[in-house]
Amino acid sequence: MRHIALAGLTALGLALASPAFAQKTLSIGMSAPDIGQVDPHKATTTQDKPMTGWAFNGLVRFKPGSADLGGLEPDLAESWEKSADGLVWTFKLRKGVKFHRDYGEMTADDVVFSLKRAGDSKTSSFSGDYASFANVEAVDPYTVKITLKAPVPSLLGLVANYHGGNIVSKKAVEALGEDFRLKAIGTGPYMVDEYKPKESVTFVANKAYFRGAPKIEKIVYRFIPADAARDLAFQSGEIDVIYGRQDQKWVERAKEMKDTIVDVVRPAELALLHINQSQKPLDDIKVRQAIAYAIDPKQVASFMGALVAEPGRSVVPIGYLGFDDTTKIPCCDPNKSKQLLAEAGFPQGVTIKAVQTNLPSMLSVIQVVQAQLKKGGIDLQLDVVDHQTFHANIRKDLSQVNYYSAARFPVADVYLSQFFHSRATVNTPTAVVNTSHCKVADAEIDAARVEPDPAKQKALWATAQKKIVENLCAVPLHEQLQSWARKSNVDYGYKFDAAMHLGPIVNETTDKK
Amino acid sequence: MIVYIAKRLLFAAPTLLAVLTLVFVLVRIVPGDPALVVLGDQATPQALAELRARMGLDLPIWKQYVVFMGQALTGDFGRSLVSNRPVMTDVLAVLPYTLELTIASLAIGAIFGIPLGVWAARGRDRTPDWIARIVSLVGLSFPAFVSGVLMLIVFAVELKWFPVISKGVALDDPVERLRSLALPALNLGLIMVAYLTRVTRSGMLKALSEDYVRTARAKGMPTQTVIWRHGFRNVLIPIVTVIGLYLSVLIGNSVLTEIVFNRPGLGKLIVGALEKRDYTMLQGLMVVYAFLIVVVNLLTDLAYGLVDPRVKST
């Protein structure tokens, strides 16, 4: 009887097993329950951004697999020139580039429309980046002129295939209205085919892509929030590419899997411990120094694992244009911490309260920092809350220190302006995420932004970083890399060193053997 | 009978209103800003304020409440703050998946749990009883996400009988749909098997020691008749009660199973909405949950009348 039952179950299982598909499809598993949008001017989340890299182009582009601003290459624009003062930029567009579906040829009108749309806070999450644009105009159908109010650190970066620089179809935005969010029309190698809420988005190859028809016919971008389920779907072969966990154990385990290639890529997220100097006792520089001396970023990074993390070296991420790590950051001397606290009038040590997100990876790291601080006589008490509450509460200035990890556009200006300029101080009308109330480098940050001479600009950014470090607005903790795994038969067609779009670019060169 | 059902549903209206009000207040007390979720952490306060105004979150709370209640009473639960799709469209799109999962796991629970319980009671303190106790202990003590992952490793990754990703397959492909349903239903059904085994066992033990059972035996009635007609019928009331109670729990508990097996469903929707502070979505979901529970309770009461004619349903 038991044998019959077992045989029956086996037969049922075999009968139910499905045939493999014939079409060349790339399945990508993302760690999220759903996406927000494919609209590149609003896509800010880790799950939304990779799609913008498949469906859109900019006037220029980051080389696939690279995050190097110096290596930007022509994309929709074939050539460009700038005026001597750096305020007027003229771009010559590639002719004959077609938008997806029946939205016609891409012309200067679309570029003007897109850049203006990117600069409008009602239609774009990145409007702040375009504040220095005075005008964008179409000189003729294939020439676009951008006039600036003041020089910007990287104009080409603002018209690259990233965030607001992505070119959308004017006709499609006007025709689709609110639906453009999920039916976005660009010029990229893949176009949106079908969106299933909480399940997947499917992209099909844009056979008329100007660099040539893609080799892979279809991309299925699946939302699989549970880490275990994503890994298992990858192991069973249902998924070709998966978003990896940013942790050493995951990378080690994924490397052991059969037919698997793990890519650990930049840009890294820099995690800083911002120190809120508007609150006692942190208004005293000696107490802030004590915190810095108690922390050992090397130990923090090695706790996270050498494959995915390295110690932070400045208050700007490594490799960003303007990064400078020549200022020595006090560290690794708990006795010195105690001595400084005693000098500041706290021989018994101090207690500091922090609002802390419950994201497991961040919670485990802050506990290491907590233990280091303890040795230096600093008692860090954590108010652990869910991630959205954390974001809300640090913006209400409720945290004395703030462990915040972020990647930004790879120019020092963006990081410095958002985290360390007094304009960005939380609880003010122009707030971004300056939770330390830092204001020592405003002049240098502002001057560097409009400085036309690259060497002088770099010097200004270096001074800004020096002042911020010396004032201890924040202590660098670690830089964390991103990780992705793919089946060994997946060839991206380029060297995958960096993911500006927080995921691999799938383009006409990508193939599955 | 129809009057009874109508009355019961009418009584549910105040409950639903109370749930709505409670959810409306609760989601707004929790810190967090849906506008920040949509725009990301680089957004300027100006952009945030503009979005909040478009979402209607800049109004005083009582005004938001009046607007919300006015719409809810006409069956309009608004649009999701995050996806901007109508809330009810999203909820109703996944509701069938949650219902089919719940009903399938209930069926598994009843088909295996009840006979196992009867079998255990008959063989009290002997092998059948021990087997039943171990099965129910395993079912109760394994968290759904552990048993789910174990099942995936064995049946999906190693044996490849079932897919790891239970995608929402259309109704017109019953085989594929069944394949997607099998493991999640088994996973959730295991919990139901455990509960039903326990209740049936203890109910049967009590029933079998009653005088009327002894009398039935004494007058030479066949054992099967004694057990099923005299014993089991008296256990049906607690079984129906437990099914009613745990059906509500199952609907709520399906969330872990839905996440591990990557199935569409209410549970996954609610976790997403909580993470994103999607107020309107949460409100809509809570109403649907509350309504489902009202319906389950009603069905339970009606079932009492069926299994025991002494219970009048008027």
Overall structural domain count of chain A: 2
Please indicate the percent range of residues of chain A in DSSP E strands (runs of 2 or more): 15-25%
The CATH architecture name of the largest domain in chain B reads Orthogonal Bundle
Looking at the structure, what is the overall shape of chain A?
A: globular
CATH superfamily of the largest domain in chain B: MetI-like
Distance between the termini of chain B: 7 Å
| CATH class category label of the largest domain in chain B | Mainly Alpha
Count of distinct strands of chain B: 0
**Number of DSSP strands of chain A?**
19
- How many discrete domains of chain B? 2
CATH class of the largest domain in chain A: Alpha Beta
Content-based structural category of chain A: alpha+beta
Q: What structural class results from the helix and strand content of chain B?
A: mainly alpha
How many DSSP helices of chain B? 12
Q: Order of helices and strands of chain B, N to C?
A: HHHHHHHHHHHH
Q: What can be said about this structure in brief?
A:
Chain A has 513 residues and is α+β, with helices and mostly antiparallel strands. Chain A is 29% helix and 23% strand. In chain A, a hairpin with a 2-residue loop joins strand 6 and strand 7 (143-148).
